[in-house]
């Protein structure tokens, strides 16, 4: 009888020890038919921007260089140069936080060099409109993908009490 009780105690101890909750989660493989939500789905729409874009004008060479930092952030450096002189320089961060997408611009000689954020307000298949109605100018920044190798960037809003628009057509640098 003692042997049977001892064997039962060992079996129960082994059973309860194997059933206890341990800190390591069990990994369950997902099947191919399980749908998952993309965490940064909106910013993926901007993958086409990655690379260098240019436009040569009488004022100089306008360049935007876009780089993917991670799944939720792209950055850009925009310059206007003429005869090896940099006439204008700004940095841009395109950042998805939750469900909202932000176009954040920092220009050293504007707004006390503080970043200004514009929020994605509308988009269609190829046009993306960012707005900040509290900013002096521009209040809207629009990017339109014309083809895989050309785009139109536009700043617009009210300036000195009048409607104003500036367009920046660009081609992808090969």
What's this model, at a glance?
The protein has 174 residues and is mainly β. The protein is built from 1 helix and 10 strands; from the N terminus they run H-E-E-E-E-E-E-E-E-E-E. It is globular, with a radius of gyration of 27 Å.
Commentary on this structure:
By secondary structure, the chain is mainly beta. The chain has a single domain (43-172), classed as Calycin beta-barrel core domain (Lipocalin, Beta Barrel). 10% of the residues lie in helices and 52% in strands. The chain has one helix and ten strands. Strands 1-2-3-4-5-6-7-8-9-10 form a ten-stranded antiparallel barrel. Strand 4 and strand 5 (100-106) form a beta hairpin. The longest helix is centred in the first third of the chain and has 18 residues, at 2-19. The protein starts with a helix and ends with a strand. Residues 47-156 form the DUF6265 domain. This is DUF6265 domain-containing protein. It comes from Flavobacterium rivuli WB 3.3-2 = DSM 21788.
Secondary structure: elements and pairs:
Blueprint lengths: L1 H18 L31 E7 L2 E11 L2 E10 L2 E13 L2 E7 L9 E8 L3 E5 L8 E8 L2 E10 L2 E11 L2
Antiparallel strand pairs: 1-2, 1-10, 2-3, 3-4, 4-5, 5-6, 6-7, 7-8, 8-9, 9-10
Q: How many distinct beta strands?
A: 10
How far the N terminus sits from the C terminus, by CA atoms, comes to 87 Å
Average residue-wise pLDDT: 82
CATH architecture call: Beta Barrel
Q: Total number of helical segments?
A: 1
- Label the overall shape: globular
Query: How would you characterize the largest beta sheet?
Result: 10 strands, antiparallel, barrel
Tell me the CATH superfamily: Calycin beta-barrel core domain
Q: Unreliable stretches, pLDDT < 50, 5 or more residues?
A: 1-38
Number of domains: 1
SSE pattern: HEEEEEEEEEE
Please tell me how large the radius of gyration is: 27 Å
In the CATH hierarchy, the third-tier topology is known as Lipocalin
Percentage of residues in DSSP E strands: over 45%
Structural class: mainly beta
Q: Under the CATH scheme, which class?
A: Mainly Beta
Sequence of strands across the biggest β-sheet: 1-2-3-4-5-6-7-8-9-10
The helix content is 10-25%
InterPro entries: DUF6265
Protein name: DUF6265 domain-containing protein
Domain DUF6265: 47-156
